[in-house]
Write a structure and sequence with these properties.
By secondary structure, this protein is an alpha+beta fold. The chain has helices at 2-17, 19-39, 60-80, 84-93, 103-114, 136-193, 204-237, 254-271, 279-298, 312-351, 355-392, 415-440, 447-454, 468-506; strands at residues 44-54, 117-122, 126-133, 242-246, 249-251, 301-303, 306-310, 396-402. The strands form three sheets. Strands 2-3-1-8 form a four-stranded antiparallel beta sheet. It has a two-stranded antiparallel sheet with strand order 4-7. Strand 2 and strand 3 (126-133) form a beta hairpin. It is elongated and about 175 Å long.
Length: 507
């Protein structure tokens, strides 16, 4: 700890030995810095707050739509308030107009205002407008002009903008409607050329896929119908058209009646499409064999002469055969019709490979145009409602909560702080320069320091003899140094006084 204190004392001694250099550098740095600070122009900021009250005039959803449109308009005005057109109005409507001589001057003032004006949205529909200028009166004028523009743009310009929006939306709707009509005409022409060949819904690919699926289903049904017809034909070939009987009274025994009933049930089952593997058909065929054996053993009694009678089972089989023949013919005709339509459409598509892409493009165009039309129509209704609200009611009201303030002190720069900072930097620069010079040209303040640096023993040291004349000269120089330091501090205090005096004059 003693060594650190000793080193600090040596450093202070070295700086003190070069105190005049330090003071001179401090003066130079402070004068230069204060000069720079004095050249920084003052900036005065004026602020105001405006509240926008949006009253609900319409009930229900229409009120929400109208209020939402009003909020969007206010937000749009807020975003465009600092546009070049509005800033030019500010330049020509304030005292800045006295300093312009041509359009170039106007453009320069507009460019400077773009960074000097800020509009901040706060809660509860409050807007804060602030402007920064080189003089407090001008700052207040700018804020007041911005408030006037904000109110005028929302009350007057919005009505004109709404009318223009309605006119534009009407034009766009008419254009979309014409485009939709043209697209529908192209689609109808396309459908007349391609779609009429193959009924159904959907695109060409969808219709062809549906036709192929239907064709496959018809093939399955046709195969089943042909199989049923073949079975009916075979059954019909093995069944007698007539039954033996008598001209007078035919006697049919119980076995013969049972045989006829079983044959009728088998015919009915075959008409339903049952095959011989069906469980009911298997049971009926077993019963048929037993019934035939019983009928042959029973024979039949007749009176009044022998005569043949129609076989009801044969007649039922003929009806089943006719029905199945009609089904086969109908399925065959439908299959041929679909094949002709499908082959014709495939031939046309082969001649024009882009047909499917053309249909997809037409569908996309029509869907897009319909979406655009619906969106534009909805926008037009919202704008129309908004226009009615703005024209017939006072739905938006503007209130100046805080009028533009008259700044009493500059917001920038903080000149007292900058002056103090320059003073500190000046002293720091002087002390740093003196310390750097002490390191460049080293001297030894004590014998111990010399012994430590050289590594050689110091045998002794001769003390300085201070006479009265030397002591008087040192006191004189110390007074001069203190006077120079005090003058620097006095200059700092004087500059602070001038700054506050200027602020008082502005206020």
């Amino acid at each position: 700890m003693d060594g650190l204190v000793g080193e600090l004392k040596l450093i202070l001694h070295a700086i003190w030995q070069r105190r005049w250099i330090a003071l001179g550098i401090a003066w130079v740095v402070c004068l230069a810095g204060w000069l720079v600070v004095s050249q920084i122009p003052n900036s005065y900021q004026s602020t105001a707050r405006v509240m926008v009250e949006m009253r609900q005039v319409l009930p229900g959803a229409e009120a929400a739509v109208a209020q939402n449109a009003q909020a969007k308009d206010i937000d749009r005005i807020r975003q465009t308030l600092t546009s070049a057109v509005n800033l030019e109005k500010v330049v020509r409507g304030t005292s800045m107009a006295e300093t312009i001589a041509n359009d170039r001057d106007v453009a320069d003032r507009v460019a400077s205002l773009q960074n000097a004006i800020k509009l901040t949205a706060q809660q509860d529909n409050l807007f804060e407008i602030s402007a920064t200028a080189g003089n407090p009166k001008l700052a207040r004028e700018i804020v007041q002009k911005m408030i006037d523009i904000f109110v005028e743009d929302n009350l007057a310009s919005d009505r004109d903008a709404t009318v223009q929006s309605l006119r534009f939306l009407d034009q766009q709707l008419a254009q979309r409607q014409k485009q939709l009509a043209d697209a529908e005409a192209r689609r109808q022409a396309f459908q007349a050329q391609y779609m009429a060949m193959l009924p159904g819904t959907g695109s060409l690919d969808d219709r062809m896929s549906n036709a192929r699926a239907e064709l496959a289903q018809i093939d399955g049904n046709l195969a089943a119908a042909q199989s049923s017809l073949a079975a009916a034909n075979a059954q019909l070939a093995g069944t007698a058209a007539t039954l033996p009987g008598t001209a007078g009274t035919a006697t049919v025994g119980p076995a013969r009646a049972r045989l006829n009933a079983i044959e009728g049930q088998i015919a009915e089952g075959r008409s339903r499409g049952w095959t011989d593997a069906h469980p009911d058909m298997v049971a009926l065929n077993r019963q048929l064999v037993a019934a035939r054996a019983a009928a042959r053993g029973e024979g039949g009694g007749v009176s009044g002469g022998t005569a043949a009678s129609p076989n009801p089972f044969y007649l039922q089989l003929r009806a089943t055969q006719a029905d199945r023949q009609a089904t086969v013919a109908e399925l065959t005709q439908r299959k041929q019709q679909i094949e002709i339509q499908l082959n014709g459409l495939q031939a046309k598509i082969a001649e024009d490979p882009q047909a499917a892409a053309q249909q997809s493009q037409l569908d996309r165009d029509i869907a897009s145009l319909k979406q655009q039309y619906d969106s534009l129509f909805q926008d037009r209704e919202q704008v129309r409602i908004q226009s009615s609200v703005q024209t017939d009611t006072d739905a938006v009201k503007f209130s100046v909560i805080d009028p533009p303030t008259q700044p009493r002190a500059p917001t920038a720069p903080n000149r007292p702080l900058l002056l103090l900072g320059v003073l500190v930097v000046g002293f720091g620069a002087g002390i740093g320069a003196a310390f750097a010079l002490s390191r460049l040209k080293t001297s030894f303040a004590t014998a111990a320091r010399l012994e430590k640096i050289s590594g050689m023993p110091v045998l002794g040291a001769i003390g300085e003899v201070v006479t009265d004349a030397v002591r008087a000269e040192r006191q004189r120089r110390l007074k001069l140094f203190a006077g120079g330091t005090g003058a620097l501090l006095a200059a700092f205090v004087l500059l602070l006084g001038v700054e506050f005096a200027q602020r008082g004059l502005v206020a």
